[in-house]
Structure formats: structure tokens, C-alpha cells
From TrEMBL:
<feature type="transmembrane region" description="Helical">
    <location>
        <begin position="159"/>
        <end position="177"/>
    </location>
</feature>
<keyword id="KW-0472">Membrane</keyword>
<feature type="transmembrane region" description="Helical">
    <location>
        <begin position="80"/>
        <end position="98"/>
    </location>
</feature>
<feature type="transmembrane region" description="Helical">
    <location>
        <begin position="273"/>
        <end position="292"/>
    </location>
</feature>
<feature type="compositionally biased region" description="Low complexity">
    <location>
        <begin position="329"/>
        <end position="338"/>
    </location>
</feature>
<dbReference type="Pfam" id="PF15816">
    <property type="entry name" value="TMEM82"/>
</dbReference>
<feature type="transmembrane region" description="Helical">
    <location>
        <begin position="244"/>
        <end position="261"/>
    </location>
</feature>
<keyword id="KW-0812">Transmembrane</keyword>
<keyword id="KW-1133">Transmembrane helix</keyword>
<feature type="region of interest" description="Disordered">
    <location>
        <begin position="329"/>
        <end position="354"/>
    </location>
</feature>
<feature type="transmembrane region" description="Helical">
    <location>
        <begin position="38"/>
        <end position="59"/>
    </location>
</feature>
<dbReference type="InterPro" id="IPR031648">
    <property type="entry name" value="TMEM82"/>
</dbReference>
<protein>
    <recommendedName>
        <fullName>Transmembrane protein 82</fullName>
    </recommendedName>
</protein>
Amino acid sequence: MARGWDWIPAAMFSLPSLSSWLPGLPSLEWGSGLLDSFLQGLIGACGVSVLNSLLKVYFFVGCANIPERQPEKERLRAQWALLQTVHLAGLALILTVVGARVAALVVLEFSLRAVSTLLSLDKGSQVTKRLQLYLLCQYSLGCGLTCGLSFLQEGAPHRTLNLLLGLGLAALLSTGARRLRRHVCRLYELHSSQHYCGVCLSLLAGAHGLPPLLGRALAVAFAVGDLAAVALINRDFLTTSEAVRFWTPLTICYTLLVIYMQEEQRQRPGLQSLVQTVLVRMGGLFVLLLTVGRWLDLLGILISLLGELWCLVGVRTMLDLCQIQDFPSQRPSVSAPSRPRPSAPAQPSGTASS
């Protein structure tokens, strides 16, 4: 006698059949697509980790060279490695589930804001504003890396293998940057004072060149991310009129957001103003996508809001240092050993005061 459950097809328990019943999420496809999205998110998070570690090295060296910045230096040193690992994992998860369209919009919005900020800089605040821009671009950098990888690896025959190789390189760079940060936070002051370590001596003499190097690397990363973002957005439009109906309100919204944010940060600089700016940016994109977007894009905007706030958590000390006018440490000058001053000639004993 046949069993009662023999009529159930065995194919229903196969992975492709089960995947058809699972809900669709932004930028996710169950199976190999999910693995590719996760690898892209990890690579983007590793890139953000490299930027964060190198910025902490620069700020720590600057605080060590200025005696008045000892409290900020101790706060930079006191950050736990476990929290940084949790931060990296959380950012990788956020970059995995955010939609490709929303990530592209975030990249384009930050690029427009960065260009506008750089063009309006005066000579006195150029260094501090650039450092603040580097700190605020972390989530946008992660979105730019994922967009660039998604566009460059689209249709590749060995996409997963390529992403695994890219993840290996990204993890190697991230691990090296984190080891450099730990070494500097623990031993920089000792090694630089005793002229013992080549790495610390190089930072002592050339730490001022680290922000320009990061600026050039970020310019290349965002240039690739912008091109990929435009291509990823335009592939969803069948006609030119559809693209115009999308890009016209988007450009107007971005322009108004940039003008508002520059005025707001000029009047009220600080972390509270930055958080409010993030809320306004994401709120503007949310309202815009209500009319020209999809419902998955709205979910991606909420995830991006979480990602922006997630990246602001660990940079509060460095943002406070950016507000200090005299912080950016210049190249230390090696002073010559002081010579004893000649003693003043003794007054003759026979001279009487009048």
C-alpha cells in the first residue's frame, strides 16, 4: 500500500523550488546571487574599515603631537577591537540588503554634496573641512564600492570567484590597516621619542601627507561608483522620457538638499547638526521615491538611514577634533639643541646707585 505522503513531489524539497517561495528583497537573489551580494557587502565594509583605520592613525598622531589633546587621544586609544568587529559585520549586513538603486542614489547624492563643498571651501578651513568630508563619506563609500562591483561583475562568467579574490585583497588591506592602527595607538609615543620604529618615524615625519593620499583614493573610488550608479539606474528605463521623468525631480531634490545642508552646517556645526542633516537627506529621498520609485526603494532608504547612523557612531571623537581650528598637525620641525645663554656681566662693586 502506498504511503499517504507519496504523492508529494520530491522536487518541492529542492533548493530552486524553495527559493521561488521565499520573498524577494532588494538586490538579493536566493542562491548564488545572495552569496554575491554578501561578498560585495563585505568588500564595501572592508573598504570603509581601511578608511576608518587610517583616519584614526592620522588623528592619533596629531593628538600625540599636541599636549592639549591628551583626552581625545585617550578616547581614540580606548576603542575596543570587539566593537570594531561588530561595526564591520553590521555594516556588511546593511550593504548586503540595501537595494542597488538606493545605493546608487546615495553615491550620487554624496558626490554632488562633496563637489559643492570642495568648491566652496576657503583657504583657512580647507584641511578641516576635507577631513570632515572623509569622515562623513564612509557609508557612501561602501555603497560606491558595492555599486562598482555590481556593475563591473555583471554578466561575468566567474563572478563569484572574482568576488572571492576581491574579498581576499580587501580583507588583507583591512587587516593591515587595523594592525597599523593598533601599533600606533600602543607604541607610537614610545617609538617616536626613542627613534626605534621605522613605521612610527615615518608617521612622525610624514603624517601630514596621509589626508591627500586618502583624498586621491576616494576620488578614484567615487568616480567609478558614480559611473556605475548612473548605469545601474538607467538600465531600468525603457525610453528616454522615463529617464527624464526620473532624473529631473531627482536633480532638483539633490540641489535643494545640498543648499540646505551647507547652510545648516555653517550655522550649527557639530554632531547634532550632522545627524539632523542625515535625517533631512533620507527624508527628502524618501518623499521623492514615493512618486518616482518603487516600494523596495523605500525600504532601502530606511536601511540607508540605519547605515548612515551606524557609520556616525564610531567617529564622534574625530568629528570633534575636526571642529578644532589648530588641530591638523603640521610636519614637526626638528629643533636644534638649546645652548646655555651667556650670563649677564656682573655690576662693578664700586658703582653706587644714585
